[in-house]
Amino acid sequence: MEVNNQQVLEQNVSARRQWAKLILAGSLGMLCAPTLLSAQTDKARMVLAMDDVSSLVHLPVLLALQLGYFKAEGLLVDIVEQPLTMFATTASAGTVAWSLPFTQILHSSRRDDAWRSLMQTGRTPQLALGVSKKTLPGFKQLKDFEGCRIGVHELDSFAHRCVDFMLLQAGVNQQRVSFIPLGSSLNAIQAIKDGLVDALCASDPLMTLLDKRGEINIVRNLRSVRETSRVFSGMLPGNCVCVPTALVTKDPKSCQSLVNAVARALKWLRTAGPSDLLHTMTDSVFLPDRAIYLNAIDNLRESYSIDGILSQEAYANALRIQNVWEPASSADRNAATVPFTNGFMLQAKKRFNI
Fold first, then answer.
1. pTM for the full model?
2. Which CATH number covers residue 135?
3. How far apart are CA 322 and CA 324, in angstroms?
4. pLDDT-derived band of residue 268, with 50, 70 and 90 as boundaries?
């Protein structure tokens, strides 16, 4: 696919790291986390991957690290940033966990049953679709997207597929819509500013930042439980914490420790006020905008899972939507083993009174 202005859209890796520092490094301290981990041999070690450390969809996992909950469970966790294209190839690495959209497991589903979701951290897609005020000032309905350019983090991503589904519902000729892979939040900001895309589907804090700057209008809010249910005719779960299926049998203790820590963070987040959240922000030359940070979390609050449980109804709807996205592989997907378990989360709920 042709992408206008390669110099802008293909920023180097350092630009991505800069954005992460600007938005979350000060508040979560996770970029330095791997170097802070002890080399103690009495603790289990696990690598936890995510596609974008700047995205607040990963906040429960990052808080579990920042608040010391992993350490309290006897688990040493290294947070690493990896593109989702790496997901399918890491199943053989038994100590690698992922924080990623639940449908990614279904998207990668094969009869070999490689992955298992241990808990749900997002009960909605936690995305927003925003229209550029600069290039589409007269936007009224999704049909107006014909002939337009929509920015996403990467092609075939969760955001890409969610927009595809909404366009299909609206009767938009999808051959007349171009999806532009932007790769990072900094690229997305520049693309909106320069008019290189007409719309953007992404997570927070990016969407809150652009909205507050007055550069976009939010036209679909998939952070909302109500709007998610309306768009997808039921709940479509967002992020989960998953591990290779083999690890569930091989090392259930580490799996339980992982779930316990993130479950505690979810519980903490439910009642955390502005002062609690700001207290997690450390002194840094890259200290983010407190108002944007707090506003972005407020926009996402109802999208975070209440108890970490994935219901059968939400799973059935996710499976239905995935079969719409990938009809050719629906038979294999429907025949595969259910790719999640609530067993670890039920134990955590009991222990922490969630």
1. 0.86
2. 3.40.190.10
3. 5
4. very high
